[in-house]
Design a protein that fits this description.
The protein is mainly alpha-helical and 988 residues long. Helix content is 65%, strand content 4%.
Length: 988
């Protein structure tokens, strides 16, 4: 880290305390991050230098890295490359970690890796991110954490921002602290760092530190330290007024002499005035260095000075009329650099030369004339061309563009794009490719220079845009590709599937059908080709997504043809894609669908296609779950997740989906325990989905606050309909358990309408929601009947819900196939709840519901037995009721389903059933007199009427009623009757 100045460090104690505390936590295995924001010149670097000194004093390893400003080009992962390169040379454990993870070869050596060429860059990118995280968490140990400092985050490239987010999401029990600084005054409204900061500030392990300008008292301390004495009052006031507490500006003013009559009014003025006092060679060296930004590699700067710089030929470094020797030039360079360091213009840190402050570099660079800038960029370009090891293709492209060397810029930009692709930095790759396309028309022989035509470059750009998360941009570029090849129908046809794949990404399915039809009309059937195979596979997937009977036929036939072509040319990636489509289409034979998916998984593995492999693991787990084979579903979900984690894909889309299935199957099979604490915490993108899935068991356990947990996920409905279904349904269930029936019914209606608009009117989850709503209605009618209130409106509402559930079961069946075991079970449950609603409460229907869930859904079997026992009591079958209630209670207790167990005990007391561990017909909750009063309250009598019946005063009745309400926690007479009835305290 360049040392800002030799002045003593003053003030900033609060910030130092925060950083020291974070270092201490990291030393104890509680990792974290600090975001340090301040305006330019306020003292971020000065604070970080001091904090690093203190951290090293406690045994920490401190590594400093930087982001640099290269305009539109950028160096992917630069701060992490710097950090790992330094750690690699000093920590054997990091070197071993890197050797054990070939994906890091992409980053540190920019060479090929085992993932090259498989087309699944997202998978490789996640592996790379996992590898970076592993390497950075390796060197820290108890009492000696690693402190990684990243300066100038406002200049970070997209890939660096992505890695930072990933790294912080993965922090667990590591001995690591990340400190990242950024300029607040550089963050305009659309700056790409803004949303990243907003996300990171919400992370529980991230602290945010703001660094304000010095107060007058702090500035007094600072100027005294800089000047070596206390400034006269007038001088100090002038410095305070002009610097406004900015540390760097104040320091420059003090060193310039605050008593001067012509004291500059701007920081740029004071910097120029100070520079002009130096020797000409030092000024010239600073100007040359300023074109590289704040930091430049020492070998590169030395090489640039060795170029013929025209107006920048340094007098002390070159003799007029004859070129200097290399030795003489190096000696003069070293002497000039030493002077620049002595005058606090430049600093030397390892192999890097840095300006004391970025503002100084910016001020000097901004003062260069256009011709001077061009000459310097050409010198940098010449040095990088002579020795490419001095910099990256992106740097060559940057200097070539600035020097108006369009041919060199074109070639360097293409090379930089390939380098970005190899290190899995798609956003940077896209920038370079778009730069190539912009330069194409001004470089006459561009195709010959690159060995590819404009269409090839555009196809690569569309792919990069897709991988960078810009699907609309990918489609726009791919459309242009198809238009550009209109004069070559065969090539145009071969490229339509490229556009089609991007169109599928934005769900323009009908357009895919049109493009693939046009392509197949031109592409020859013989000899078999990969273009035709991909066109067929893409068309099959699009036809399937239309979810129409006629297009399902097209999808089936086209997928089968795609598989035949893929096998003929040995294209396992195409075969896997088409086999997955066939499996989804197979709705009548779940076992055959599972076998197709297993075949697809094998072909994906053969192709090294990790994402398709993960998609197959997920689909097989889903297939087994929805076919009712819960045990195998759990095996597939766990095994698939193990493969995903091993491949570094534990938190990608399908990795998260496998985790969701794991939670769902655990709950269904009766494992209601809270999920084990994972050493790998959820990234922010997965929190909502996994939190929703964990609500199933939380409701069944009766967790306190579960309703609020579900309510907190309401903003996530818009992002993911599945979250709406699960969180909304679980909240309805929890509301019913707690007696909040009106809110439960209102939420059920809201959810049905919302998902009807989002998906379709007959989404299958509607059967579950309808059954839960019918439960609420049935509970409400039981309560009304206790006090003789009318129930016709509730019965009518329930009839409509049952009708919609029946219709959904018919019209919402997947692709016209059979309703799965879970859907059937919830439909039978809805019918049984409707019978309870109407007052029939048919035991046969509850027996059918219990049997329907008995494919492995342990919790719902127990819950159905509870209602079956209740219905048997209603028809006088006490022995049967005791048998069902006893079995349900044993299961509920064993699972830890507290609300269900409590309801079963209440039923046993109310029905005077002999159950293990439960005393029949006795209670100490209410006194005999209170029970008598409550029975009469249930009959609708007033206090006066009850008093007359019991020969006591109305006032005494009022006291008894108040006692009952307090003991039962009821808010009114009707609620008290309902609670007492359900607890078996009174018979009504």
């Amino acid at each position: 880290m360049p040392r800002p100045s030799q002045a003593h460090f003053v003030a900033r104690q609060h910030q130092l305390d925060v950083i020291a505390a974070a270092v201490g936590r990291a030393a104890a295995g509680d990792p974290g991050a600090i975001l340090l924001g301040a305006d330019a010149g306020v003292g971020k670097s000065r604070l970080l230098v001091r904090a690093a000194e203190l951290a090293r004093g406690t045994g920490a390893t401190v590594v400093v890295s930087h982001c640099v400003d290269l305009g539109d080009v950028g160096l992917p992962y630069l701060p992490f490359t710097e950090a790992l390169s330094e750690l690699r040379s000093s920590h054997e454990v990091v070197d071993k970690t890197i050797d054990a993870r070939p994906a890091l070869g992409r980053l540190l050596d920019a060479g090929p890796s085992s993932l090259d060429g498989n087309g699944e860059d997202q998978a490789g990118r996640l592996q790379l991110f996992e590898s970076i995280t592993a390497a950075l968490t390796a060197p820290g140990r108890p009492g000696a954490p690693l402190v990684l400092v990243i300066e100038d985050l406002h200049w970070a490239d997209p890939s660096t921002r992505d890695v930072l987010r990933f790294l912080l999401a993965r922090l667990r029990a590591d001995h690591l602290l990340v400190i990242a600084s950024y300029r607040t005054d550089d963050l305009h409204r659309r700056h790409p760092l803004r949303p990243v900061l907003a996300e990171l500030r919400r992370h529980p392990r991230v602290d945010h530190l703001a660094l304000d300008p010095f107060t007058p008292g702090e500035l007094k301390q600072f100027t005294t330290a800089v000047a070596g004495r206390s400034l006269p009052k007038n001088d100090f006031e002038r410095v305070m007024k002009r610097s406004e507490g900015n540390a760097y500006f104040a320091e420059e003013l003090v060193e310039a002499g605050p008593q001067a009559d012509a004291l500059p009014w701007s920081l740029a003025d004071v910097l120029h005035a100070r520079l002009e006092q130096l020797e000409p060679d030092v000024q010239q060296l600073a100007r040359i260095a300023s074109l590289a930004g704040r930091v430049v590699a020492e070998p590169l700067l030395r090489a640039v000075v060795g170029q013929d710089l025209g107006v920048f030929s340094l007098g002390g470094l070159r003799s007029p009329g004859s070129p200097p020797t290399r030795g003489a030039l190096d000696q003069a360079f070293d002497a000039t650099l030493r002077e620049a360091v002595a005058h606090h213009v430049l600093t030397v840190d390892g192999g890097r030369i840095a300006f004391r402050h970025a503002l100084l570099a910016e001020a000097i660079s901004a003062d260069l004339l256009p011709g001077e800038q061009v000459a310097l960029h050409r010198a940098y370009l010449a040095a990088l061309t002579e020795d490419p090891s001095l910099g990256s293709p992106a740097q060559r492209a940057h200097h070539a563009l600035s020097a108006h060397e369009t041919t060199t810029a074109l070639v360097a930009s293409r090379e930089a794009a390939r380098r970005a692709g190899r290190v899995l930095a798609p956003a940077e790759e896209l920038r370079h490719l778009e730069q190539v396309l912009r330069l194409w028309d001004v470089v006459p022989d561009a195709a010959d220079l690159l060995g590819e035509d404009r269409v090839d470059v555009a196809v690569a750009a569309a792919s990069a845009a897709s991988r960078a998360g810009e699907p609309d941009r990918a489609v726009a570029i791919a459309r242009k590709v198809v238009e550009m090849t209109a004069e070559n129908p065969l090539r145009q046809a071969s490229l339509r599937h490229v556009l089609s794949l991007h169109l599928l990404g934005i769900e323009h399915v009908e357009e895919v059908i049109e493009h693939t039809a046009a392509a197949l009309a031109v592409l020859p059937t013989e000899p078999p080709s990969k273009d035709r195979a991909w066109t067929l596979a893409t068309r099959a997937r699009a036809a399937m997504n239309l979810d129409r009977a006629d297009m399902d036929v097209v999808a089936q036939e086209t997928a089968e043809e795609a598989i035949a072509v893929a096998r003929a040319i040995d294209a396992p990636d195409v075969e896997a894609d088409a086999l997955t489509t066939l499996a989804v289409l197979e709705v009548d034979d779940a076992d055959r669908a599972a076998q197709l998916l297993a075949n697809a998984r094998e072909r994906a593995q053969a192709a090294g296609d990790l994402l398709t492999e993960m998609r197959c693991w997920y689909n097989i787990a889903a297939n087994r779950y929805y076919s009712g084979d819960l045990g195998q579903a759990l095996v597939e979900a766990h095994t698939g997740l193990e493969h995903a984690v091993a491949a570094g894909l534990g938190w990608n889309g399908y990795g998260v989906e496998l985790r969701l299935f794991g939670e769902l199957v655990r709950y269904a099979t009766g494992d209601l325990r809270p999920p084990p604490t994972s050493p790998d915490p959820m990234p922010p993108s997965a929190v909502a989905a996994l939190s929703a899935a964990q609500l199933y068991a939380a409701v069944a356990r009766g967790d306190e606050g579960v309703i609020e947990r579900a309510r907190a996920l309401r903003p996530e409905w818009r992002r993911d309909g599945q979250i709406a279904l699960i969180a909304g349904g679980c909240m309805i269930d929890a509301l019913v358990w707690t007696g909040q029936r009106e809110e439960a019914l209102s939420l059920a209606q809201e959810l049905i309408v919302y998902l009807g608009r989002t998906w379709s009117d007959y989404f299958l989850g509607r059967i579950w929601i309808s059954a839960l709503a019918l439960t609420a209605l049935a509970d409400a009618t039981e309560e009304r009947r206790l006090v003789g209130a009318p129930v016709d409106d509730l019965v009518a509402q329930g009839g409509a819900l049952l009708t919609e559930a029946e219709t959904t079961a018919q019209r919402g069946r997947p692709r016209g196939g059979r309703l799965g075991p879970e859907g059937i079970a919830w439909l039978v449950r809805a019918r049984a709840e409707h019978s309870r609603l109407t007052g029939t409460n048919d035991p046969v229907l509850w027996q059918e519901a219990t049997a329907a869930f008995d494919y492995g859904y342990r919790y719902e079997v127990a819950r159905s037995r509870w209602r079956w026992a209740q219905s048997l009591l209603g028809v006088g079958d006490r022995e049967g009721a005791a048998a069902q209630a006893g079995e349900a209670l044993e299961e509920a207790d064993d699972m830890g389903a507290a609300p269900l167990a409590s309801a079963l005990r209440d039923l046993a007391r109310r029905g005077r059933l002999d159950l293990p561990g439960l005393r029949r017909g006795t209670t100490t909750v209410l006194t005999d007199r209170e029970a008598e009063v409550l029975l009469l309250v249930a009959q609708g009598l007033t206090n006066r009427q009850i008093g007359e019946r019991l020969f006591i005063s109305g006032k005494t009745v009022s006291v008894h009623v108040s006692n009952v309400l307090a003991k039962l926690g009821a808010s009114g007479r009707t609620e008290a009757v309902s609670i007492a009835h359900h607890r078996g305290l009174i018979e009504v």
